[in-house]
Design a protein that fits this description.
It is built from five helices and nine strands. It is α+β, with helices and mostly antiparallel strands. It is globular and about 50 Å long.
Length: 174
Amino acid sequence: MTRNVEITTNEKGKQLVKINNIRFKGKRSVDWKDVREYLEEYVGEFYKIVSSGDIIYIDSKLPDEYTGSRYTHGLKGTAAKAKANVAQGIPELIEVASDKHFKENQGEKHQWNARYGWYRYNSRFALPVFSEDGSIDRYNVFHASLLIRHDNNGKMYLYDVIDIKKETSNPLES
């Protein structure tokens, strides 16, 4: 898995994940099958959230949920391409996550595999905008929420990346 990703800090001192290439391209739509195959490479890995010390595991449910959720199917345009391409920065997205929030599990579907509820963390990432000559002109910055399920085995698993919104503030310069 070749990745060109780094953690950087913006002018306000906030950390964000800078993804330096666009792997999943398309004029009209994203090929979610390719994204699913890419995410399968993370299965079995785990990463630590620096701000909380929580260990987040990646299991075989992530690729299907990430690419097949109602949230994903509702995405269009820039948000869909942002979600597809942020898959390249999953380890770093987890590492810089902050603002942990808990929510009880209320759905029947996840009574067992989210027995101890759900957590959301905020994270930020930047994707390149290319100029006509193919060089990076600037980066668009996005906010995202990491949805983490707290399993009956006591471990926390990345379930999905949701609430992706482009920040309207000044873009990150290259």
